[in-house]
Each structure stands twice: as C-alpha cells, then as structure tokens.
C-alpha cells in the first residue's frame, strides 16, 4: 500500500479482491474486527486514486484457472490492463493462461525488490513511514524486518537490512 502511495507502483484491486483478503485476515486474526478491516478498505480506496477496478464481471465466466474462485482476479487484471498479478499463490495462475492476456505473476518478495533496486531512496522513505505508523506496539527496524521475514519477504529483508538506519 505504502509504495503505491509513493507512486512506485500502480496498485489495482476490486471489491471482490477486498472481500477475499478481508475474509482471509479475519480467519487468521480473530483479534481484528470486520469494522476495522472495512475502515482499512475505505482508506485504501480513498488514498490510492483509480485503484478500484469495476466492470470486469462479465468476463469472469469465460476464464479458466485451476481454482475457479480466482477467476475474478484475472478478470480484473485483464480489464484494467495490468501486466502483473502479485500473489503468493502463483500455482493457481498458470503462466500459459495469463500470458494469453499479456499478464504475468510476481511473488510479493520479487515484486518489492524491483522498486527497491530502481528507486531505493523513495522505497526506503515509504518503508520508514509505514513502520512509523505501527504504534500498537511500535516496532524497531529489526522488529519490522522480522515481521517482513515472517511474511516470506526474505529478499526484501536482505536488501532493507543493508539500509536499516534509513527505515
């Protein structure tokens, strides 16, 4: 999110994608409430201009993916002209299928390394601001990197650790 706010990437999502991530977070984090996540959704939509993709629903049924419940993601990506779907779940988005639409996938770790190498100063500022917003509890730079590591962002952590004083 933060790197989209800094203009390093163009993030796109749909209401269906919001619903999916919110269900997943609520399942994995019983300490959070639907109301809190809904507030996050609203803030995301307000702060990242033109991020919400609509009008793609009519092509969902025509798409084939290993998991039919993922077709809405591909449909939204096709409709908005995305060139990448950022996901940990790459096996459900086969390259042969996506390439027909000029789309590839990227694991979040690989995706983050690109902007970090292309514009490290801006990305480090975005990371610093994101870490600074974590107040309950506040996170040291080391604690923040540990959280990223737990999310399997190992390459990103290696690169960020080289500039830990900047985050």
Automatic annotation (TrEMBL):
InterPro entries: VapC50_C. Residues 108-162 form the VapC50 C-terminal domain. Pfam families: VapC50_C. This is VapC50 C-terminal domain-containing protein. It comes from Allorhodopirellula solitaria.
């Amino acid at each position: 999110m933060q790197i989209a706010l800094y203009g390093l990437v163009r993030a796109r999502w749909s209401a269906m994608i919001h619903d999916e991530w919110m269900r997943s977070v609520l399942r994995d984090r019983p300490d959070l409430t639907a109301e809190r996540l809904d507030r996050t959704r609203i803030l995301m939509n307000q702060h990242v201009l033109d991020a919400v993709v609509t009008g793609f629903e009519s092509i969902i049924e025509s798409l084939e993916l290993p998991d039919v419940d993922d077709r809405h993601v591909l449909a939204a990506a096709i409709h908005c002209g995305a060139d990448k779907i950022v996901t940990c779940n790459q096996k459900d988005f086969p390259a042969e299928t996506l390439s027909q639409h000029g789309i590839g996938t990227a694991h979040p770790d690989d995706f983050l390394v690109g902007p970090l190498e292309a514009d490290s100063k801006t990305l480090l500022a975005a990371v610093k601001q994101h870490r600074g917003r974590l107040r309950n509890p506040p996170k040291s730079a080391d604690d923040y990197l540990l959280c990223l590591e737990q999310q399997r962002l190992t390459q990103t952590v290696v690169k960020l650790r080289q500039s830990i004083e900047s985050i």
